[in-house]
Amino acid sequence: MTPTPEEIKQAVKARYGAAARRAAASTDCCSGDPAAPTASACCDPAGFGASAYGDLAPDEVPDTARLASLGCGNPTAIAGLQPGQRVLDLGSGGGLDVLLAARQVGPEGFVYGLDMTEEMLVLARANQQQAGVANAEFIKGDIEAIPLPDASVDVVISNCVLNLSADKPAAFREAHRVLAPGGRLAVTDIVAARPLTKEERADLAAWAGCLAGAITAREYVEGLEAAGFSGIEVIPTHPAGPTAVSAVIRATA
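Predicted structure:
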């Protein structure tokens, strides 16, 4: 039986809430070893977690921000952020991408981190305080109903989160709505190598693991076009299991 959107949401919240608690305890979520550098990568079968940020200086972000990273890429490396820009991170988790983006846009810019999981928000705010980043704010909400005004940001970023949405058309529309005209979407996400079967989409654990909610590159392009985006590109970067790849997705509002 296909899970309901609410069942999917609760499964995702449970997985990422647990990940936040483990990161806050500075514990490898797979083995239990303290502060293991590859903690996130082995927890998430779809991605590389913090290993995608290999060029970070050791003290650039708090360790707990690294440990909470369950992504499949590094959106701040592909977004081309500029000083003074306003940025929104969809599904900001422990705050890693928000903290990096805030430094890239500088004191005249601003970054919002949106997440629906209370444990992640608590962790992200603690990481922000530890990092001494002032030009950012973490807000609670769903990516299908973003609590920001129309045309309020210049760039939307995200790291392996859009696949988790049970209502991708709404998520795409909301991303377009909050972008200023000419604004950009620059995300990393899991893309299905083929259309998934009903049985594959019925697996709640695979939804929370970033696989059962993935759509194909063609579906991604069609969905973004329907939301009003143009100049869409979907660029595969590395395998993410037998039925999916990690990819960079860019588009213009």
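Summary: Confidence is low (pLDDT under 50) at residues 28-47.
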